[in-house]
Every structure is written in structure tokens, then in C-alpha cells.
Give the backbone structure.
Amino acid sequence: MTTRRVTLVDVARLAGVDKAIVSRVVNADPSLVIRPDTRERVLEAISNLGYRPNVAARSLRTAKAGTLGLVIPDFANPVYAEIITGAESAALARGHVLVTGSSTGAHSSMDRYLDLLGQGRVDGLMLAGPTTAREQQKLESLGLPWMMVNRRDTGEHHRFVILDDAQAAKLAVEHLLELGHRHIVHVAGPFGADTARRRATGYRQAMKNSTHPVRAEDIARGDYTPRGGAEATAELLRKSPGATAVFVANVAMAVGVLDTLRRAGLRVPEDVSVVAVHDLPLAEHLVPALTTVRMPLQELGARAVDLLLTSSPEDEVAEVVGTAMELVYRESTAPARP
Amino acid sequence: MTTRRVTLVDVARLAGVDKAIVSRVVNADPSLVIRPDTRERVLEAISNLGYRPNVAARSLRTAKAGTLGLVIPDFANPVYAEIITGAESAALARGHVLVTGSSTGAHSSMDRYLDLLGQGRVDGLMLAGPTTAREQQKLESLGLPWMMVNRRDTGEHHRFVILDDAQAAKLAVEHLLELGHRHIVHVAGPFGADTARRRATGYRQAMKNSTHPVRAEDIARGDYTPRGGAEATAELLRKSPGATAVFVANVAMAVGVLDTLRRAGLRVPEDVSVVAVHDLPLAEHLVPALTTVRMPLQELGARAVDLLLTSSPEDEVAEVVGTAMELVYRESTAPARP
DNA sequence: TAGGGTCGGTCAAACGATTGAACGACTCTG
DNA sequence: CAGAGTCGTTCAATCGTTTGACCGACCCTA
């Protein structure tokens, strides 16, 4: 009564051919010459028996898992949700399955994942978010192709794909300049994040077109969280009074920025304009709806997958995904008052 | 120069034993009797060579993949982020890897996933979100153990784990009643979602303690999105004027509810109190910060994994995760005005 | 009609780990 | 000192696919 799994041999027997034929038919082997009616018999047998190739056996033989790994810090962060979505889509398009794991969690850690995944379970690994040098070493020791996503590391690893954060910052600041703002301050991301550095650089560059020169007091760092944004804003209110606009390094911090401004009795956008990087669904529903720079996060994830699958491990891969960046003008920015 | 993968045989050779010994040492086979120094030699060889078992070979032999699949509608939905986090954690604790896929996407669909996963790649499957009857049939045909998460299906499939949605609704409504509200309306979820039905039922039951009897006009349906919440609210403002509080079936819709109330010139919580189901990080940052019922979503995911791994396929599994539900009192609810 | 080409297949050796069975060398025990 | 256990280890079959090598039948051509 218990039905055994259907294998190649079963199909071969039913079709009256050798299992080699069946295998080649299944894999559409171009070197196969076969009579049309034989192929027909095979296909029929496959469908009648409901045959499905065993992945384990196939992986064993071919030494390919058909799987890619993506490690992110946290599923609850919508930025990574976008990256995952893009990566998954690209992986599926190439016939691969994507395994996504978080490196912060009750039983998970980067280490744990490297142990579980580094056994031929995946053909390649993508790391989004911060990584330690030790983890990178371990990664190298696994002999897997891997690359960093949205992080450009200072170490010796030369495979990564990032976004044009400086350009995003410029778009945001130029928007504010066009609205007539001059004294524009910056709520920057954490020191360790290279995305934050690039956005700060873009801010400085764009501010060259302002009459207001950027001073140290015009920039405060947050840790990419709402609370961090709130604290940085409080700091800026003290250090850099008179600013009419804020460029925030990400949407999460912008939430805290809006909170703090409101509590300080400042109206957005009447008194202060706010623009942030990343256009997440959330932005639209803040009060006021947040003006943002849309970043191609899905494309970032997709490019990472493509590069991982097409480049050879020794290749250096350093790509900046630059398309489809645009300013999304909502309610948190308005012309500067004369 | 190119280093071959290290196998059992290599380790065995270096340690001067048979590969069977190595295998049993690696797997901590309790039936193995071995001299301590031999074990030591084996372990040393393993670490010297950096041996890692090949998952494909192991899966082939044992017919176990060590992997579970979880299919969700959308990574961007924070509700599923919580479920994933819980499921991942439980899976890792049991030595399994979790493969999470979304069923809505450029190249993904439930079907596509069933094809990719239903080949011995996973030992079991969890489905969160809506499922069609055809998909369920296909699932059955794969002969995989599977279960529904956060959905209780009307079909013949009798394996699922859900939350006590009625109880959550009661907590919310009782909170409003305690604040003195009587005319409480309900922005319900879509008809197809059983979670929505249970929450509506809980609402009706709790309202038995109100002096205001629930009429059809006191309930409007939305589709669990902000827009849906906005539309339902507009409908309620027309149909059921005079309400002093709204119970919203989920946080996403609550976003739209707050929007619409604001645009209608109603202040929250001074004029209308709002409480919603699910405590997501987002809730804290809405304006005003949203009072919610915290649901054990992570535990839901974790229980699903545990049940999938411990129950036998023919068992009926119908579990309601009920712990850790509580009301989170924030700024969107206040005492009813006399 | 011998020799060489296609055609249309079949054969069998991997891939790397797991696991029941067998086995040789000891140590007891009666 | 024969017979029976333990102890510690080896043997070998098996999981299901893939893939290069081989092979027989048939058709040409010289």
C-alpha cells in the first residue's frame, strides 16, 4: 500500500528503454538522438508515473546544488525584504532555489549558517549587511563563491554589488536646493556602514551648489533606526539651528526625525522639509507622507544573483547598480519660505 | 593545485581507519564502540582536512533533506516576517534549514515552487497565506507532509496551526469597553480569510457586553491593506455615524483608518479610539502610536515547524497557539467622552 | 562485399555517505 | 582448553542520476 518513490528505473521499465535515455530526455540532452515515438513513450511514462527527479542524487552526481544562499540581518527590515524579492526572482528565473537566512535570531548566527550551508547545500552565498573579518575568513575556507550585497568591504574580498548611494544623496539634496533650501543638514548613518559614508559624500558634493557651506555641526550620525534618527535630530536642533531642511540617510531614521521635529513644535514641511533615502511602502503612510529617493533594491538583489551565477570565482566583481533611481515627491518637502 | 573536496575516504585514510568509523564518529552513532585514541585520531583528521559531510550524498542515502519549505505571499509584509523569524529559529534548533519562498513575484508562484521543492529538496512544507484547491491537490500528490500556517482551510486538509484570533478581538474590544466606549464599529478583513472571520466573531461576542447591539452597518470589510482600511472607514462614517471607537482587523488597514479619520477631521483618540490586531514595529511609529493586540506570530511559525517535524503525516494536527497575547496600550485609544 | 558512417540505443562506472552484517582478536568461564 | 561473549573494526550493498564509452543494425559507397 505504501507507494515507493518513482525513479528513473521505473520510468525506463515502463517505457521499455534504458534509464540513460530517460535521463537524457528529462534533461533535454542536445546530444541525444532518439526516435520521436520513443521520446513519446518516455514522456508518457514520466507523466503516468508522476516521476520527479531526485535532487539529492542529481546533486551528488553533478556536484551542483541548484541552490543559492542569502544571509541578511533581519527579516523584519523592509529594505532586505526588497533585496530578497529581487534575488528570489532572479534565482528562480535561472532555475535555482534561494535559501534566505537571518544572521540575528534565537538560534541563528552567521556562523551557524555557514556551518549548515557550507556542506554543498548551496552553490554560492550572498551576504547582505555587516560581516566580520572572521566570518569572511571562514567563508573563504568553505571554497564557495560568495559576494557581498549592498556592502563594499574594506577587506581583501573583491566581490560585491552596491547601489549608487552618492547619486541618491545628490538627487535628494538637489531636490531640496531646487525648492530653495540652503541650510540643509544631514542625519547620517552609522560610521561602520559604507552605504552611510557614500550618502554623506553625496550630500557634501551636492551641497557645493548651496550658499551654505557644510560644517561638522550640520551632520549627525544615527544607527539607521528610528531611535537613532530621533537622537540625531535632537542633536542637530541644538548644534545647527536655523536649518530649513533635513536629508536623512534612510527611511527608518526618518521616522524618528519626524517624531522629534513634531515634538519640538516644528511643522513638516512648513517649517522643515525632510527627504530620505529608500522608498519603502511605509514612506507613503507616514505623516506627512515622506519624500524619498527610490532605490533599485530589487534589482540589486537580482544583479547579485546573476553575477554570482555567471562570474567565475576568481573574477573580481564590483558592480554598481545605477538604474531606476528617482525622487518620489510627497508631502514632507516644500519650497523654502523666503 | 585545485583542491578536491575532502570526503570520508580521505579522512579515513589519514586516520588509518575505515570510512564507516568516520561516518559513525561524525554522526555520533550511539551503537559505536571505539577506543578513545582512535576517535581522537579521527577527529584530528577531520579537523586537519577540514572535512564537511556532503549533504547530497547524505540525503540520497537517508532520504531526508534536512530542509523545510515555507511559502508566504510576500516578503514585504511584516506579519510574515515575524512568522519566518519564528519558523527559522525553530528549524535551526532542530538542525534543519528553512527555505522561504514567496508565491507572488516576477518568476515565482506557488506552482513554480511546488515544482522546484517537490523533488526531495524539502522534508516538509508550510503554507502561510491563501491557497487554492488545485494547489492543495498538487501538494497532496507530492506525498510531502505539509501544513497550513495561520489559515484554517475549509477543504479536507486537516493540518494547520492558527492563532486565537477571536480571543485577540475580545481583548481589543474589552479594552474599548473598559474605556467606556459602547458604539464600537469593526473594520473587518476580507471574506475569504478565516482569520478575518474569527476576529469578527470575537468582536461580536465581546460586544454582547456593550449596550450597543451590533448591526450590519457597524461592520465594513477591507482587504487587509491600507487602502482597504481607508475605504472601509469611509463606508462606516456614512453607515454608522456616532461611533466612538473602531476595532480594526489588522495593522495594515489601521494605517488607512487613521488616514481617513484625519482627513474627515476626526481626532484620534480624542474623537475616535482605534485599536488593531498585530503588534508590528510599525504600530509604534504611526501618528498617533497605535494601540494593538500583540499576537505570538513568531511562536506560530515555530509551532508549525515543530508540528511538521514531530507529527506523522497521517495525524490530524489542529493547533491554536494561544500564549503571550496581550494588549499594547499606546496613544490611539482613550476614555470615551461622557 | 568489405569497410565506413549514421542512428538509436545500452552499459556501467562514478558521486559520497550510511548501515546492517560479518569478522578477528581478546578475555572469561566452567 | 573449548566455547562463548565482548570489543573494535572492516566489508559491501545501497540510495538515484549522470555521462562517456561502447555496440548492433542498417545504409552507402567503392
Summary: Chain A has 13 helices and twelve strands. The mean pLDDT of chain A is 93.
